[in-house]
Known about the structure:
Helix content of chain B: 10-25%
Strand content of chain B: 15-25%
Strand content of chain A: 15-25%
Distance between the termini of chain B: 39 Å
Number of helices of chain A: 14
Radius of gyration of chain A: 20 Å
Distance between the termini of chain A: 51 Å
Strand order of the largest sheet of chain B: 4-3-2-1-5-6-7
Structural class of chain B: alpha/beta
Low-confidence stretches of chain A: none
Largest interface: A-B, 65 and 49 residues
Oligomer: heterodimer
Largest sheet of chain A: 5 strands, parallel
Mean pLDDT of chain A: 97
Helix content of chain A: 25-40%
Number of helices of chain B: 7
Strand order of the largest sheet of chain A: 15-14-13-16-17
Radius of gyration of chain B: 16 Å
Number of strands of chain B: 8
Amino acid sequence: MGATIVEKIFSRKCGSDIRAGEVVMAPIDGAMIHDITGPLAIRKFSEMGGKHVFDPKRVIMLFDHQIPADSLEAAQNHVFMRKFAKEQGIYNYDINEGVCHQVVLEKGRAAPGEIVVGADSHTCMYGAAGAFATGIGSTDMGFALKFGALYFKVPQTIRAEVSGKFSRRVGAKDLILAIAADIGADGATYQAIEFTGKTMEKMDMPGRMTCCNMAIEMGAKAGIVPPDKITWEYMKGRRKMKPFALASDADAKYAEKRTYNVSDLEPQVAIPHNVDTGVPVGKVEGTHIDQVFIGSCTNGRYEDLAEAAEVLGKKKFSPKVRVLVIPASRDEYLKALEHGLVEKFVKAGALVEAPCCGPCMGGSFGLIAPGEVSLSTSNRNFKGRQGSTEGKVYLCSPATAAASAIKGEIADPREV
Amino acid sequence: MAAKKAAAVKGKGAKQAKTPVATGGRAWKFGDNIDTDAIIPGRFLVLNTPEELSRHAFEGTRDEFAKKVKAGDVVVGGKNFGCGSSREHAPLALIGSGIHVVLAQSFARIFFRNSINTGVLPVVCPKANTIADGANVTLHLKEGYVEAGGKKLAIEPVPPFMQKIADAGGLVEYAKGLKEVPGCTKSQQ
């Protein structure tokens, strides 16, 4: 019986044949902490008797949720973490680099075949680079920081085979919202989702990141795209590694196989308050919105902003809505700046903020009031996610967000 | 309804040392897909202690929870309890509230693990949805059932490896007992 890519990664790291369902203590290649879950992880590390982290070069620290510090408590958390980084010799990306997951990939801190953990649920995004990456809590992170290893129950895999050609202004976000609606919010609990098929093979890295980012929204432990030419091309200049083959065997045992054809896929919108509620945009067209957020680790890359800018053209955003554009990282921001997107957005009436999580987690700025509605390119529309529990959050692609921001209500990007 | 205090729980916010064998209290009933944002909203994640966090537990979702919860009470959820964020602040907010057991039809992976690690016992009870809000709930962990509102409902055993961590009193205590972690070790779930 062949092995899945996930079983192969664990077998490779452990030096023995590992299969889904087994519980293993596996060495990790990277551990990421940020300003929200980091302070607690550091405390747990100390409580466990930790003196030195397993390898400072493999620990990734950065601040993205509350930057610049938006409260005294946040400022104190930052100071606490900076001190730890200095003591331990950890490089800290601090407040000026961007959203953790984007930065980890950009800096080549997650690579094909590696096991990377992060104290953030969307760590599964690194599967876009062919890594087994999963979100963990702060106590698990304390353990990982101390020992450089962690217990894992090796997950079974759901194979999502994607075929077909995207229609104009339909893309990766629409696909993943449709997959989430199909699999359900808990349909992949304790499993990995492997994205394969002709469409994935052609999809660029930003699109793959969007797909893997949202694997957790189906309860998955990891999302992964088998590394190929596109992956290795992306790794160039970020990480010195010789390309090697890593893919599931043809006779691998999957939990299940699902197929998707994107040729007839329409722009999707997930309605409040769950992520697995994606519907074609036509069903919610005309819905009142107060705020539009284009950004986050899901859709804050240059390509996402370029797509939004293309929909915008020479139009203006509706004065009825507040438009927040937040690039996912400094690199993405600079690219947007160089290509004139920042100027375009600002002239159209948007607020362009420095790279950070923005309103995505509802811990910082850009929150919505009771009764208000946000349309967002981020990954979660839970009740209260972006502020008031009496507010509503809809999720969509950058193209749909831009079209809606122009019209002042939820709109079909194919018609703007 | 007077909450029956469990022997293992000394008071609200008390630190749990070992897995409770039998604990009882009032059922705080929630539905399906209760996410970690509902348990503790993002704006409170600057707080780090169970006591501070417990003051905001379920804020905006069920405001009376923080004021009325008593040590030994039990949170009862439907399917996919604890989905969403990896924030460990969620089980910590429960611990600070004196909650040491969550019963649900199913749990989200990270929350399940965080709970075991920090000392909240997540117990899978396939019929948790039939428990009424306010019912008196007593957990009989060893015997494998929960008594709720006079009825006995089956519970699933905690996976052996997770039970080991729970028995140690959480991952911190478990880790303290380890001198070093041996390379790759396997243990059957």
